[in-house]
Every structure is written in C-alpha cells, then in structure tokens.
Task: structure prediction
Amino acid sequence: MVVKRRAGAGCLDGMTRTDLGPAAVRLRRVTRHYDSGFGSGSGGVTALDDVSLSFPAGSFTAVMGPSGSGKSTLLQCAAALDRPTSGSVSIGGTPLEGLSQTRLTRLRRERIGFVFQSFNLLPSLTAAQNVALPLRLAGRAPARAEIRQALGRVGLAERAGHRPGELSGGQQQRVALARALITRPQVLFGDEPTGALDSATSRDVLRLLRELVDVEGQTVVMVTHDPVAASYADRVVFLVDGRVSGELQEPTAEQVSARMTRLETVPC
Ligand SMILES: Nc1ncnc2c1ncn2[C@@H]1O[C@H](COP(=O)(O)OP(=O)(O)OP(=O)(O)O)[C@@H](O)[C@H]1O
Result:
C-alpha cells in the first residue's frame, strides 16, 4: 500500500488559515458544559471551552490530549452526536444549530462515518450484512456489487460471508471502516480506532486511513492516545482542559510523544 502525504493538507488553529481550502467541519467558539446533576450553581464540568477549529476537506487530523481534556466531547460535537452549550458547528457548510432531530439524524447518516475502538459490529450478521446496514437504515436496498466494492476498498472482498467472530480484530475494524464509508461520508471520525489492536494490525488500519485521504480525498478526524497513530495524520491538535493548546504539522511520533509528555507533566 502506498503511504503518501498530501501536500498542503493542513490545519487551522483558531481559524487563522481559512484560505487553505473548504472546511469539511468547522467549530466556532464551541463550549460544552455538563451540569453536575445537582442543580444550578453547583458547578459541573466545562468539557470544551471556547474551541475554534477547522478540519479542511481531504485532510487527516489526530486529536490528542491528557485524559479528560475533552477529546471525545470534541468528536461528538463535531460529528453532530452532541449539541454544544454555545458556539456553532457546521458540516460541509451546513450549520447544525437550529436543525430538527430528524434533519440532524439524516445529516449524520448521509455525511458522517464513525468508527470506534470496539468495532461495534453486529455479531449475528455477516461482514456484508454489517456493511449494508447504514444503507438499509436509510431505506435503501444495497446492491451486492456495492457491498462487495466497499469490502474490496478495505481488502476484505473475500470475507463478505464471514461473521465478526470469524475475523481477526484488524479485519473486524476494516469491516467497520467499510460500513462507515458505504454512504461516502464527507467526514470519517474515529474514536481510538486502533486502541484495541496490536501494533502491526494498527499499522495496517492506519495505512488504510492514510490511503483513503491521499487517494480518495477522504477527510479523517481521529482521537488517539498513540503517538505512532498520530504520526500518520497531517496534523495533530492538542487539547488541554477543554482548550486547544497547540498543534503539530506533519508530525513524527517522537515529536508527538515529547509534546504529550510536556502536556501531562507541566501544569497549565
Ligand atoms: N456526559 C457527561 N456528563 C458529565 N461530564 C462529562 C460527560 N462526558 C464527559 N464529561 C466530562 O467532560 C470532561 C471531558 O471528557 P471527555 O470524555 O471529552 O475527555 P477525553 O479527553 O475524551 O478523556 P479520555 O482520554 O479519558 O477518554 C471530563 O472531565 C469528563 O468527566
């Protein structure tokens, strides 16, 4: 598989470089506050604090930060799975605020793909049936060739009839990727997509993500704790206490690791 970086795919911090190209996803001054559950005035948690970020179309971004820094919350707000307390999010130029639940659900189905650490495949369905699910949920009867092509994209055309229990972890994650990509989403989000895989299998999945960006122009945004995984991205955005604390372009694993060590040891 060819591993090739896109020239110029990059990143915006605080929307200072919006001229790089159209944003697949844009967050403007996003704050997400969780109430404590004990009524007003009792504090709660500010998981995201005035975050402005843009994910340019056709780029691969890794999001890193210490535990509790807001990575998953950022992903959920950016993927329209959660609503910010304030600020705005737009996907493919469509602002999410004010959209009804029905329209949000449709937008998520049509424009967003999601892969998780735990694959989330249905164990009783074959790989092909799992991949077909998003289309069935959207009311479409998927053509067999379409499913085969989606599995072919992740190198699993020959495994269409296998159930998840008959596949390795890496193969299961590739089925999950095919399922996430079957609707041709504008953005693919990954919440630690390689977190449950051994390092050799992780590399295969990361090379596949890289290839999707380089060859097909897919936009990928991935939360990870692994500096090696982050080094496959065009840039790494670092969060600390719900705020963007900086970013690295064309990162190496060593640079990411050094930055993370600093963030985890130096009080901000
Ligand atoms: N549903 C919720 N209700 C209350 N607080 C929440 C909720 N979800 C997240 N938080 C809090 O928001 C903060 C950010 O959480 P988040 O899960 O986004 O962090 P994270 O960087 O993804 O953490 P980790 O690396 O440990 O998964 C944490 O303090 C967390 O406890």
Remarks:
- The chain is about 35% helix and 25% strand.
- The chain has a mean pLDDT of 88.
- Residues 34, 45, 47, 65, 67-73 surround adenosine-5'-triphosphate (CB under 6 Å).
- Residues 199-216 form the longest helix (18 residues).
